[in-house]
Structure formats: structure tokens, C-alpha cells
# Entry
Amino acid sequence: MMPQHALPETAMIGVLGGGQLGRMIIESASALGYRCHVFAPMGDAPATDIASMVTRADYDDTTALTAFAKSVSAVVCEFENVPVTAMDILAEHIPVCPGGKALGIAQHRLKEKTMAQSLGIATPRFSAINNPASLADAIATFGHGILKTCRMGYDGKGQMRLSVDTMPDDAFTQMGSDDLILEELIDFSAEASFLVARDQHGQMTTWPASINQHRNGILHISEAPATADILSPALEKEGMDAVMAIAEHLDLTGVLAVEMFITSSGTLLFNEIAPRPHNSFHWTIEGADTSQFAQLVRIAAGLPLGSTHAHARWRMTNILGEDMPELDAAFGRSGVHIHRYGKAEARHGRKMAHLNERLD
# Structure
């Protein structure tokens, strides 16, 4: 039975952000009978190509945000660096996903790590860096580490690997910010990611964990469900408990991913969160009863959470600008599900598409 509070078919759902995640959200919304209005700044925004309505404005344009809110029945976010103030403005008018608190924590690496520790979730050692002296002290403590900007930076950007021989003054100057974090360099055997969906009533469901491989700081391959030889049942439960605890703490409405290191000694360490659909769970489009995108639409529309049961095992492969020959070859292979993002220019390091393949 359809819940009384559910949005009726053809209702308009707002999407903050115009990238490929927004595009896949719109595809899922359309399958469920909803239309979408995209709000995105100027620039290449492939989600706008398939939206019912589009607003091109900056996230600090209060007038545009208010008009956008009046045109939709709920809002989802495909980009975690939308200003919290924009989310707060929208929340005055309509239900929003994921909410301002989740965005605020996800936008700052030091806040992320501190939050995880407060919830009893193990993290690498870390230190706030505000000047060369604090960096020198942290290097002396950690030896090898990764210096990152606390804000922005993704897919390997905004970070620098340091050693005991690094000159603190030079490294600090190169980063161009006084809001940094130095994280201890971790000896890990693999990276796992965990994904939870939480609706307006606090009901939650999770998908099987993904195991990830990176190239040059960018996700290359995710395989799921994780096998016990890489992620033991005990560690998988620990990761699932962690992602659900974070969602509860943030009063999340929507979906949230947590990336964690599997250390060489067999423990889990928190890396970062993303309160939106996550690259490592694109396999759910074909591989699960309900994809991460469809689940987010269900939550925004007030529909019941869908089953997250996985069909066999799957591999998701990212296609970057330099991988276009691999994409071309995929069209001639059987059993490959191709998802192109509609981006105008294939630049080096830019995500252009992904492939989903069943492994068994």
C-alpha cells in the first residue's frame, strides 16, 4: 500500500548538483514516475541534459534557491560541497537529503575524523595543521603521513605525501591553505566501503560492502559483495555498525557511504564519509534489487525502503578520459552494462563512464 505521505507520480524532485550522480538519480526518479529539477552553477553539467527543469545559478543565490524550493516537493544532493547555508535555506521550505549537519561534517576532514573518534570508531592518528610549526611537530610524531586540505579536494586532489625528510615550510606553502590535516600513513591490505540508507523515520538498510582498488588516487575498480578472505564477517559487521552509527549521529535522511582501510594487521580504520550516492556502489544499478540511486529517490518521495539484496557478485570499473579505448572495446563484449555520463570532453583523470559486470 502506498504511504499517505508519499509524493504522487509526476511530482518534481529537486537535485542539487549537475554531475553524473545527479544524472543517475534522475534516471532512477524517471523509472519511478517522478520528474526532476536540477539546480547547478554554470559549466558542464550532464544531469541538466535529461532534467525536466533546470536552474543555472550559484549556490549562494538566495533568490534562485527560494524559487527552486517552491518548484519542487523534496530535494536531494549529489555533491557534498554544496554550502550548508544553501541546504538550510531549502530546508525551511521542503524536506531535504542529506541535511545540513551531514553536509557540514562531510565538508571538513578534521570534523570527520573527530566525529568518528567520538563514536568509538577507530581512525588513523591525525593532527590539525595551521602553520609550519604544527606541521613540523606532526611530522616528528608520525614520520610518514599524508597532508590534506580540510576542505574540498577529492580523487587524490588537495593532498601531499610527506616523510621525515620533508621541509615543513615548503610543504605548508605548497598546500596554499592554513586549514590542513596530517594523517598517519597506514599500511593497509585493501579499502572497503559501506553504504547505508536512512529514511525520514529513522529506518535504515545497508548494501553488501564493496572492496575498492585505486589508481593515482582515483577509484578504479569496486567488487561486491566483499568476500570473506578480504573482509571477514566480523569486520564487515564492524563496518556496517559504524556506517549506521554515523547516519544516526548525523540525523541523516538519504544515503551515506563510509570508506575504511583494512589494515595489514586485520583491523578497520575510518577514512572518510560521503552523504550521497557513492562511486563504489554504482554496481547496485544492475546488481541489487534497489540501487543506491533508486533508494535515494524512494526516501525523498516518502516511499518504503527497497530491498538491498545483491544478485551474485559484481565488478564496477571506472572509465576516465584516458580510458576511452577500453570503453570503446566494451561495446563489443557480452555481459557488460555500460553507463556513459554524457560529458562533452574526455580529459585525463575525468570520470566519463563506468562498466558493470557480473562476476559469477
The domain at 12-106 is CATH 3.40.50.20 (Rossmann fold). The mean pLDDT is 92.
